[in-house]
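Field reference: sequence -> structure
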Amino acid sequence: MISKEKRTSILYSFIALLFSIALYFNANGQSVQNTLSGNEAYNQTVTGVPIKISYDSQRYYIHGYENTVTVKLSSANRVQLNAEANEDTRMFRITADITKLGEGTHEVPLKIQNLSSAVTAKMEPSTITVTVEKKVTKDFDVETLIPSTITPSGYELDDTSVSPKKVSITTGDKTLAEIKRVVADVDASMVTDDGINSKVPIQALNAAGEILSIISDPVQVTVKADAIKPSKTVRLYGTQQGTPAAGVESYDFSFSDLEAEVSGSSDLLASISDSIAVPINVSGISHRTTRKIEIPVEEGLSIKPKSVSVEITPVMQTSSSSSASTSSRTQEDTNTSTSTSSADSVTVPSTTTSISSSSGSATSSSSTSTEETSQTSESTQMSRTNSSEN
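Structure field:
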């Protein structure tokens, strides 16, 4: 026969078993239900889940910890699983509480809060290492670090400027003591043939050149530097391209700028002549037109101005023919006048006029002159005879 004490012990054991089963089903009800019902469990891994750390931000500065974790989610409810995996609809968050910890380095456990009961989660890692320091702030001069003082095309950089020249650095007291330089480290991609004009993030470096954990105000500074480019002045002239409009014989070009300044490396500048041809498409132009045309330059060179306004004036074929005809007629009139003047000069003597008047009068005049000559000769002969007799 079982004693009363033994019966009581068996009863308590049975009640404890029932409570254990109840607690098990309460904690793992969804998993057990899935197992019993045969529902398939869905899994999804979410990376880069941020960690929210609770601490006294007025007194302390914390650093040295991983600020994100990877979370593996599992659920039989596909819709609920996707909702938790999606950053925009996620309800859960990862937290770390260090409000009760003082200065130093600590191993802090991570917790998952507000996770849906239909979803299970596992974190990797499950803890983080955090360094806690007393919070301090100090102003520092900014130094620029440039990977090269030469641009991709070989131009030299002029004096570099940074704005603002000072920044306010907030960090831990021990970290502040390690700071040797506060720099704006210019990336090589920021250096162009025009120089530098970029927003550059601030970094604090220790004696070994390692980047320290800080908060900078402002976070970025503006770094500027001009490129010193050799240049030469060239003349501009137009070259006709395209098909002229009907009735147009040629075109006149009038440039807004007759010269331009070309910049580039010394080798490239030496390879170009002292003038640059500007191609002008005249297709379809039958009236005076003004166009803005880009000035072509070789790759690696820049030109100022980059474009020029050109007034295009067509010279019509009809106007040219009329001018030539007028010129020809003028020349003919001039030749005619010259011939007439020459003829007038020849007909001036009276003999010609006498010939034009009457041939008989001319004969009479000629006979009279002959008789007078004969008489004169006779008188002369008589004078010579008388002188001889005397």
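Note: DSSP finds eight helices and 23 strands in the chain.
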